[in-house]
Amino acid sequence: MTWARWVPLAVIILLSGLFAYFNGGERVSLSLGFAQFYRLSLVGVTFGAFILGMISMFLIGLRHDLRIRKHLRERQPSAPETPRQPPPVTEWTPPV
Fold this sequence. Notes:
mainly alpha, 11% strand
């Protein structure tokens, strides 16, 4: 792997580290509709939102993938079930 493939990852890590450093003391309140939380760390709330977004996109993508696979399986023409024959075996001949 070349170093150019690692540059975007390093930039993302650097930016997230700078965000955490500059906003480490910031506190926010979070209202979920049924509960209100006060004095939560902005970095923690941002990280939690990031993780919840990743999990939700994984689950939505998984559901979509399973639906597409089911659809493709239904559209695949059914072939008669015939036992597969192994390829013919030829005798080994030494190289000339």
